[in-house]
Amino acid sequence: MKRLIAHLWRIIRGPMQWRVLWIAHAKFMVGVTGVVRDDAGRVLLLRHRMWPEGRQWGLPTGYAVKGEEFGSTVVREVREETGLEVKAGPLVHLKSGYKLRIEVAYEAALVGGELKIDSFEVLEARWFSPDELPEGVQESHRALILGSVPLG
Fold first, then answer.
1. What is the number of alpha carbons within 13 Å of residue 86 lying toward its C-beta?
2. At 132, is the secondary structure helix, strand, or coil?
3. Which tens digit of pLDDT belongs to each residue from 76-98?
4. Which of 8, 52, 74, 121 is close enough to 34 for a disulfide, judged by CB 3.0 to 4.6 Å?
5. pTM over the 0.85 mark
6. How many CB atoms lie within 10 A of CB 94?
């Protein structure tokens, strides 16, 4: 049976193989988060409108669009949500998330722009010292900020 499957696999080649793989495997959304820091080491936090009451503070985050490099997702999401320009740095977190979601986080450095929030998604944006984070910060984001989330 294994030989037959291997033989059929070699026969279908190319696009047909990709269709079979697409059908057979999970499809994922990729949530990308940026741990944005300024020159003073402060971290950018947003109070998200759509998040649960009492847990609305968190890092800039959003979903990657098809074909987008994840570092570019951080740059785009921060610009869309805050008007700030950042440069994506090292990958600091990667894991499968809830259901069909992959979670990715990058360090990012502020490089310019003027703070102007997208009021549809964001209620407030502020810079915080990592040792003085506000109440209501998502615990997973607190761990990212403090560097206690293991890679992988």
1. 33
2. coil
3. 999 999 999 999 999 999 998 77
4. 74
5. no
6. 15
